[in-house]
Amino acid sequence: MPPASKLSRIRNIGIIAHIDAGKTTVSERILYYTGKSYKIGEVHDGEAVMDWMPQEQERGITITSAVTTCNWGNSEIHIIDTPGHVDFTIEVERSLRVLDGVVVVFCAVGGVEPQSETVWHQADKYGVPKIAFVNKMDRVGADFSRVIEMMRERFSSIPLPVQIPWGQEEKFRGVVDLISRKIITWDEGSKGAKYEFSEIPEDLMAEVEAQREKMLEAVAEVDDEIAEKYLGGEEISEKELLQAIRKATLAVKLVPVMCGTALKNKGIQPVLDAVVNFLPSPEDVPPVRGVHPVTKEESTRISSNKEPLAALAFKVMQDEGRKLTYLRIYSGQMKAGEELYNASKTKKEKASRLLKMHANKRERLEMAGAGDIVAVMGLKETTTGDTICDEANPILLESMEFYEPVISQA
Ligand code: GDP
């Protein structure tokens, strides 16, 4: 059986926010829309959306596992649960190690608050690429440009609005996508599952063009090819622009910023597109580093199924009375039923089951490979921070650095 999915289509992400900014609501909407979502104009069964929603609401789709897998287009997104409170700084750091990119949620009224600022800096320390979502655009006092200003003042990576809001507060109607020059609106009847791209109205055009110029200037600042075209007055295609923004996001120079209101079901699907377009796949991140357990010689593993197995246990949870060990596989492959070598404990243990956790189901895997994040049953001795690897090619993945928790000012 081939590995679970192609590496370039995997996104291992976390969603981080200051408490109350809307992380839970955003996560729930992501799970809802990835479970069932239609663009207006596609073949769809409207009834199915309506029938499905109340049932799911009753059950409550929330992230209860350390990682939840969802699918968006051809991509497989693994959402790694990150603790929302600054008191758990060590846990945040641990989860930042196993994810490849983050979505930072801000409140359109509160802007950059202490916890989001702390986590942002932590992500910077690990060189984790980010995109930002300014939530609660419907609230009284919502101010997109003020949040952007706050980001500019406090962070070294530069915020890049790739959208502007169409209206604010109670007049928030949707967003203008500056890259495609289209307005995106959501159908309230479908709880935002259906959304539509349309032409920008005449009276908004001047503002959109001005904001788009600003975006192009910012991209030109960090990308020579775009700079050349921009200064030469040449047309820059949507594809070129997306590629340049991706490159700058991966290099942690720019942070694409979007906006919406999770509660009122507007703005989430473009964030999923941005996760795919701008955040890294496991192939895009530098090789994981470690040392040989005996010789202490440094070595690295590139993200490939062909390399010897190297995986990090980053979370251990009890689930229906059974122990689930969550592993991030950096290289190589593992099979269900196989004996796995724990280099930290110098012990072998049988992985009785490999599971991929979805919002409302768990999928049994025969095999998992580089870039995957899986829950493993049967690893009785393995604890958080242990390395699972090929016994013949052992490695201890970089030991966790621990930091004093930062006390929130809030
Ligand atoms: P978390 O603490 O970051 O996980 O935030 P929650 O998702 O629990 O949201 C905190 C509060 O803000 C809840 O009462 C939500 O209903 C509310 N909320 C979330 N998103 C929005 C939004 O887009 N607009 C408004 N007005 N309220 C929101």
UniProtKB/TrEMBL annotation:
<feature type="binding site">
    <location>
        <begin position="17"/>
        <end position="24"/>
    </location>
    <ligand>
        <name>GTP</name>
    </ligand>
</feature>
<protein>
    <recommendedName>
        <fullName>Elongation factor G</fullName>
    </recommendedName>
</protein>
<keyword id="KW-0342">GTP-binding</keyword>
<dbReference type="GO" id="GO:0005737">
    <property type="term" value="C:cytoplasm"/>
</dbReference>
<dbReference type="GO" id="GO:0005525">
    <property type="term" value="F:GTP binding"/>
</dbReference>
<keyword id="KW-0547">Nucleotide-binding</keyword>
<dbReference type="GO" id="GO:0003924">
    <property type="term" value="F:GTPase activity"/>
</dbReference>
<dbReference type="GO" id="GO:0003746">
    <property type="term" value="F:translation elongation factor activity"/>
</dbReference>
<keyword id="KW-0963">Cytoplasm</keyword>
<keyword id="KW-0648">Protein biosynthesis</keyword>
<keyword id="KW-0251">Elongation factor</keyword>
<feature type="binding site">
    <location>
        <begin position="135"/>
        <end position="138"/>
    </location>
    <ligand>
        <name>GTP</name>
    </ligand>
</feature>
<feature type="domain" description="Tr-type G">
    <location>
        <begin position="8"/>
        <end position="283"/>
    </location>
</feature>
<comment type="function">
    <text>Catalyzes the GTP-dependent ribosomal translocation step during translation elongation. During this step, the ribosome changes from the pre-translocational (PRE) to the post-translocational (POST) state as the newly formed A-site-bound peptidyl-tRNA and P-site-bound deacylated tRNA move to the P and E sites, respectively. Catalyzes the coordinated movement of the two tRNA molecules, the mRNA and conformational changes in the ribosome.</text>
</comment>
<comment type="similarity">
    <text>Belongs to the TRAFAC class translation factor GTPase superfamily. Classic translation factor GTPase family. EF-G/EF-2 subfamily.</text>
</comment>
<feature type="binding site">
    <location>
        <begin position="81"/>
        <end position="85"/>
    </location>
    <ligand>
        <name>GTP</name>
    </ligand>
</feature>
<dbReference type="GO" id="GO:0032790">
    <property type="term" value="P:ribosome disassembly"/>
</dbReference>
